[in-house]
């Protein structure tokens, strides 16, 4: 089993050794998943957030300056219909952390499940919630939940998010206990972060027993305290993707859009480093421009781009890996 020291060494590789690392990661991916990439359809449901993350333009301090939006249940069902029409069976709702999303999403889920004849994965990324809210969403039919800790370093986490890492971990444990397929992830390039800290993030996620894990390069966004901080290192991010694949071969690991924002070929290289998920954006255009996760100039993944990307890497698109699998018991992977 790879430990923090092993992972730190993998993260430092460059040149031919880095290529070898990517090849090992691709091989592991093929062993577990075949030559396939999971395709998700995402819609962003609100740009309002009660948290004040240093790196995010949707942070609480910017609420007044941003034009707020919040989709309703009918909107979510409409977007899900568009996702279904594209042949995608992973419907992904993400948004800022506000309590109102529980009801809006909870009301939409059964209607979406019915539309799909129950053959759909409902994936959520709506931040910290109370356990009874997670329970309600699960009962309504949610399958999976992404809750990134961003960094597993408790001090840095508190500096960046103004919340405790502990509160995030409690939510992650609640999600696992309730039978969600759970994703987490980290940002690469936060102030004061070093190689060992990135390695610890990956090993930490394995020890949590999650089913999906992402790494994304930090993207400096305007109107945030970190606007002047340099962007995350793409090579290090790619190595972290490959190392994650070796640490836990059956993880779903996305090639995130922030990779393409930082470097033109970033997502292609993410897939070549062992990632196996691409997310296509279905947010209605008017709202998409207001969802400022990386500022106004973010990179939006559309259907054609994703298809081209997957074909170029010699992989084929596929649907949810969780459908038809037995619901995990609490702690079955820890
Ligand atoms: S990163 Fe998420 S939790 Fe933090 S301010 Fe942005 S939307 Fe809110």
Question: Can you give me a brief rundown of this structure?
Answer:
The chain is an alpha/beta fold and 334 residues long. The chain has one domain (4-312): TIM Barrel (Alpha-Beta Barrel). 42% of the residues lie in helices and 14% in strands.
Give a description of the structure.
Residues 35-257 form the Radical SAM core domain. It comes from Amycolatopsis bullii. Pfam families: Radical_SAM. This protein is α/β, with parallel strands linked by helices. The protein has one domain (4-312): Aldolase class I (TIM Barrel). It is 42% helix and 14% strand. It has helices at residues 4-11, 16-33, 73-85, 100-115, 131-140, 154-161, 165-177, 195-208, 234-247, 257-262, 266-272, 285-288, 303-312, and strands spanning 36-46, 90-95, 121-125, 144-146, 181-188, 212-217, 277-281, 316-318. Strands 1, 2, 3, 4, 5, 6, 7 and 8 form an eight-stranded parallel beta sheet that branches. α8 links the parallel β5 (181-188) and β6. α1 (4-11) packs across α8, α2 packs across α9 (234-247) and α4 (100-115) packs parallel to α5. The radius of gyration is 18 Å and the shape is globular. The chain starts with a helix and ends in a 16-residue tail after the last strand. The structure holds iron/sulfur cluster. Iron/sulfur cluster is lined by residues 49, 51, 53, 56, 58-59, 96-97, 127.
Count helical runs.
Answer: 13
Poorly predicted runs: none
| Rg over alpha carbons | 18 Å
Portion in helices = 40-55%
Strand content: 5-15%
The largest sheet is: 8 strands, parallel
The number of distinct β-strands equals 8
Overall, the morphology is globular
- Give the N-to-C terminal Cα separation: 14 Å
Name every ligand kind in the structure: iron/sulfur cluster
Second CATH tier, the architecture: Alpha-Beta Barrel
CATH class, please?
Alpha Beta
Find the structural class using helix and strand composition.
alpha/beta
Average of per-residue pLDDT values: 93
- The oligomeric status of these chains comes to single chain
Taken together, the total number of domains comes to: 1
How would you name the CATH homologous superfamily? Aldolase class I
InterPro entries: Aldolase_TIM, Elp3/MiaA/NifB-like_rSAM, HydE/PylB-like, rSAM, rSAM_sf
Domain Radical SAM core: 35-257
Protein name: [FeFe] hydrogenase H-cluster radical SAM maturase HydE
Pfam families: Radical_SAM
């Amino acid at each position: 089993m790879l430990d923090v020291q092993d992972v730190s060494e993998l993260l430092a590789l460059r040149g031919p050794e880095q290529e070898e690392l990517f090849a090992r990661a691709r091989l592991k991916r093929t062993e577990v998943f075949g030559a396939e990439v999971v395709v998700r359809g995402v819609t962003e449901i609100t740009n309002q957030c009660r948290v004040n993350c240093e790196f995010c333009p949707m942070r609480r301090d910017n609420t007044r300056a941003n034009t707020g939006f919040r989709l309703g249940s009918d909107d979510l069902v409409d977007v899900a219909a568009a996702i279904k029409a594209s042949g995608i069976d992973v419907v992904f709702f993400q948004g800022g952390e506000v309590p109102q999303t529980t009801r809006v999403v909870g009301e939409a889920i059964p209607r979406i499940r019915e539309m799909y004849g129950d053959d759909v994965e409902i994936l959520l990324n709506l931040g910290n919630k109370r356990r009874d809210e997670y329970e309600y969403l699960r009962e309504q039919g949610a399958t999976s939940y992404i809750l990134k800790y961003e960094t597993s370093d408790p001090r840095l986490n508190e500096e960046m998010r103004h919340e405790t890492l502990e509160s995030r971990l409690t939510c992650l444990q609640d999600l696992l206990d309730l039978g969600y397929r759970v994703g987490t992830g980290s940002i690469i390039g936060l102030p004061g972060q070093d190689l060992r800290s990135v390695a610890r993030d990956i090993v930490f996620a394995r020890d949590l027993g999650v089913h999906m894990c992402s790494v994304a390069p930090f993207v400096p966004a305007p109107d945030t305290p970190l606007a002047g901080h340099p962007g995350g290192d793409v090579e290090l991010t790619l190595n972290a993707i490959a190392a994650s694949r070796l640490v836990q071969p059956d993880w779903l690991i996305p090639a995130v859009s922030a990779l393409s924002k930082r470097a033109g070929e970033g997502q292609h290289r993410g897939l070549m480093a062992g990632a196996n998920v691409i997310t296509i954006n279905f947010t209605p255009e008017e709202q998409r421009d207001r969802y400022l996760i990386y500022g106004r100039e973010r990179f939006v993944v559309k259907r054609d781009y994703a298809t081209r990307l997957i074909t170029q890497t010699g992989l084929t698109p596929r649907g949810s890996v969780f459908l038809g699998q037995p619901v995990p018991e609490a702690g079955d992977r820890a």
